[in-house]
């Protein structure tokens, strides 16, 4: 059993069986981490006012003493206060940077974190990202799913770039 443990936190409609998590999970295993995948059913009426406490309720029980990395997508970035409060490194995929509570929690982080987003994602703010951390991967024209226009091979290439950024961050 590995001494390190990563917790994978899904988004609202992007669970941990989706491509980003599958490949990042493999990168984590190759780096010697165990992974714990959170599965959830987001309440259909979950509004922005209740999202942060709801995500915290889902994620906090999964955090153990050996948890040294969180990987969260979109809605999962409401776990940023947990990472900041517990001193846990993180990878945030399409983080909700336009939300002050998420950006504030990221600003309180004492451990490094990687932010990954696309310029065609309405919740991404590249300027905020670069102010918060030197670890930023910004994909031109990528949407909230990190898909880009054109042939699907271009979006597959984006997946590869995200994997490389995560592998570099883990080193």
Verbal overview:
The chain has 171 residues and is of the alpha/beta class. The protein has one domain (4-170): Alpha/Beta hydrolase fold, catalytic domain (Rossmann fold, 3-Layer(aba) Sandwich). Helices cover 39% and strands 19% of the residues. Strand 1 (4-9), helix 1 and strand 2 form a beta-alpha-beta unit. Helix 1 (19-30) packs parallel to helix 6 and helix 3 runs parallel beside helix 4 (100-108). The longest helix has 19 residues, at 152-170.
CATH architecture: 3-Layer(aba) Sandwich
* Low-confidence residue ranges: none
Summarize the biggest pleated sheet: 6 strands, parallel
Order of helices and strands: EHEHEHEHEHEH
Helix count? 6
Coarse shape = globular
CATH level 4 superfamily: Alpha/Beta hydrolase fold, catalytic domain
Summing up helix and strand content along with how strands pair, one would put the structural category as alpha/beta
Distance between the termini: 20 Å
- Radius of gyration, Cα only, in angstroms? 15 Å
Number of domains: 1
Assembly level: single chain
Neighbour order of strands in the largest sheet: 2-1-3-4-5-6
Q: What is the strand tally? A: 6
- Per CATH, the class reads Alpha Beta
Helical residues, percent: 25-40%
Mean pLDDT: 96
Remind me, CATH topology? Rossmann fold
Any chance you could write out the topology, listing elements then pairs?
Blueprint: E1 4-9, H1 19-30, E2 33-37, H2 48-59, E3 67-73, H3 80-86, E4 89-93, H4 100-108, E5 113-118, H5 126-132, E6 136-139, H6 152-170
Parallel strand pairs: 1-2, 1-3, 3-4, 4-5, 5-6
């Amino acid at each position: 059993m590995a001494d390190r443990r990563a917790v994978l936190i899904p988004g609202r409609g992007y669970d941990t069986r989706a491509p980003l998590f599958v490949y990042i999970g493999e990168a984590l295993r190759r780096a010697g981490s165990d992974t714990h995948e959170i599965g959830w059913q987001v309440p259909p009426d979950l509004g922005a006012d209740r999202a942060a406490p709801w995500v915290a309720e889902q994620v906090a029980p999964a955090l153990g003493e050996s948890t040294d990395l969180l990987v969260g997508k979109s809605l999962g970035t409401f776990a940023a206060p947990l990472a900041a409060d517990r001193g846990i490194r993180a990878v945030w995929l399409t983080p909700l940077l336009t939300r002050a509570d998420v950006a504030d929690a990221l600003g309180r982080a004492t451990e490094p974190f990687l932010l990954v987003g696309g310029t065609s994602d309405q919740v991404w703010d590249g300027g905020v990202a670069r102010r918060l951390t030197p670890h930023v991967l910004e994909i031109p024209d990528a949407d909230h799913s990190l898909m880009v226009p054109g042939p699907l091979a271009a979006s597959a290439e984006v997946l590869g770039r995200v994997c490389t950024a995560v592998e570099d961050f883990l080193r």
